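Q: What does the assembled structure look like for these inputs?
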Amino acid sequence: MENLIKELKQHIVTSLKLEISPDEIDTDAPLFGEGLGLDSIDVLELVVMINANYGIKIVNMDEGRKALTSVRSIAEYITEKKSAK
Amino acid sequence: MKREVVITGAGILSAAGASVGETWQALKEGRDGLRPFSLFPSARYAGIPAGQLQADLPALSGLGGGSRSDHLAVAAARQAFSQSFPGGLPDPARAGVILGACVGGMADSEVFLERLLRTGARETELLHFHECASSADAVAGTLGLYGPCETISTACSSGQNAICLAAELILSGESDVMLAGGTDSLSRLTVNGFGSLLLMDPQGCRPFDEERKGMSLGEGAAVLALESAGSAARRNARVLARLSGWAATCDAHHAAAPSPEGEGIQRAMRGALAGAGLSPGDIQYISAHGTATPDNDRAEAAAIKAVFGEQTPPVSSIKRAFGHTFAAAGAIETLACVLALQHQAVPPNAGLNRQDPACPVKIQRDFAACKLSNVMSLSLGFGGNNNCLILSAAGQAQ
Amino acid sequence: MENENTGAYILKAGLVSPAGGSPEQLLSAVPAAPVPLDYPGQKAALKTAGYRCDLSEAKALLGPMKLRRLGRLQTMTLLAAKKAGLSAEACAGDTGVYMGTGLGSMGETAAFLENMVLNGEEFPKPANFINSVHNAAASSLALEYAIKGENITVAHRDISFDAALGHGVSALAKGRLKRAVVCGADELNYYHLLAAEEKGLWKDGAGPLRPLAGGTTRGTSPGEGAAVFLLSSGAAEGALAKVLGARTARYRYDASTYLDPAASADFLCGLLAACGVKPEETGLLLSGADGDCALDAVYLRTAAELGRRAGRLVPHGSFKQYCGDYKAASGFGFGLAALLLSSGTVPPGLFPNGTAAPGPVSTVLSYTISRSGSHSAALLRSL
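A:
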């Protein structure tokens, strides 16, 4: 899980063109609204990122928002979906 | 005499048909205009429900060359023009055109780009009709118009904005006649683009439905012949409807989502009513934008309820008959409002199963005869660019 | 436009251009040579040189979180708005946006499509798509400054800015708005450059553009820029100038003269008359001449005919030697006109043919001919 979390932080920085170092992202802090201050367009970009890197397809915004609350929630979502496959 | 703007001609081409008559018949029947998408090869989107045209577009337009959007526009413009000016224009220097257009020649430009990237081929002739301005230029060139010739590109509200700005040029005295409307073809860009926003419904758009999942795309064009009331009277032209008022606002809320209570939509409605000198109780039908995305329909219904309250008239979205035709949508819906006034009947909200209880206005399920004096059309652009337009029956004293 | 033409005040102006962005830079600018245009990673190399804007201030002025979300056109437009000194306070109330752009956000459109072709439909770029609509820059302005009135984008080739300006001025005159943010912007784009290069629209050679200077070569050099203006129906301190009116029309193509000079002069005099201005009161004709000898000749014949009607030579300058040729360039010309009316000096750089600049002028008529069949004009007056 820790490796996945590290990887995810790097992917987030790259795909969202953030000018911060991946380590600056708090694993449990909210990604949207406060915290990193990402918005709904970033949700869509992360949906693509997750499909591209982990082969998991999120098909609607509600599912997306829930899975993407924090880096940890993304990691848990991916782990759960992969084990279900 | 105060200048007024009237409508003396109408033309349309869409998944619902190649003429005004065919379109009204499709609306009466509540017909589903969506068919499996097949215009371009697509691994992800082949077969999705879309308002795709099968017609021979160059044959309908008579244009030697042009983009798909150009053919749609000229075909529709010819219909409106021949209805309004069978004997030709009184003064070509005082006749112009404004069209809403977003896609332009993208359907061909995309092919150019793909071939360049895959093979290095520089088939730049595919870019010849790229600009969305090409359609208005083609209409002006075909019909011999030498007044203002412009293109408005404000996403989904383009067509309706074009009609309103054309009306303003007539009211200012810059022009006596304006062909106004919108055109857009399907393209890989828009299909993949809206797909990437997770905004399309694999079962086809179901406006205001409880289970709705999003929009369906379509293509088409609608053009109205707008004229000053004085010019129409001088030629004894038959008036189809009158343009009474309009207003446009911006939510300034988010690049791709409406404000949840439809705050900007409310301001547009109030502004249009004020401009027309009317109260909410004077409107007998509202043609909603109703794209069937969860957010749009909820915000739009909330806005209508806030402005009309107990006096909310029948509301319907007609997008199931056409798909969401982007820049053409507002023009198609304004034209449908003209037909509603002419036929004194309201078109149904096709695609509705169970109305979403979170949409607090009653949606018109069935086609119904109705006494109509004033009708309202809402056209809401991607990202909060709102246009509200009010049409009134011809020969109606205000 | 007929009976309600009191015009509108130009309260603020901000320009992002290859010749600089501050009024001082622009009024003292010297026309420069275009620079090689380099698009690494593109399959077909370009031969064309052009006029490019320096956007290095953007990160500092707009911030990285905002910038990552914006395409080039939006960045240029927001930067120009910052230079104009726009603020939410200045835009509060009944304010609308009227924008002209010929090609819109080509960069963002290309990025979305290139990704689709190279990586497939499963891994799209939604942010690029949202930015690809022609009105993305106008929407960005509305979001940035909470501008809630009409938001209109005209995308009609070289007349885009003047058409948008005309609608904005009219909305103010009719009282639909109290203030209008009027803008014109277009970005350099690889695909547009390539298509035009294939058609022979660009010049060979590397010298500065010298419109109206008697050159004998065809073609022009591409450029880009963004111009943002805050217009108001009421006067305010610091206003630069007034815009009396703007209009557009199609012209009849004439096989021998391209555009009959009498027809252009009729068009220009029509605007002048509607604004209550006599031809002889025109202090300066500022045209969109772009150094293509064929089109330059058309502008020169128009100026001569206007002079005949005015009964005097009307000074005739150009502006594309500063910014290059792009669809919304008349917005840049409009900005220069406002600055020179406000400063009281006509920059000699407006006359590449070496004519002496006139003394202070109080009326500037801007004229743009689009090769596609439309022309447009705007009329400005000093305060």
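The interface with chain C takes residues 16-19, 37, 41, 44-45, 48, 51-52 of chain A (CB under 8 Å).
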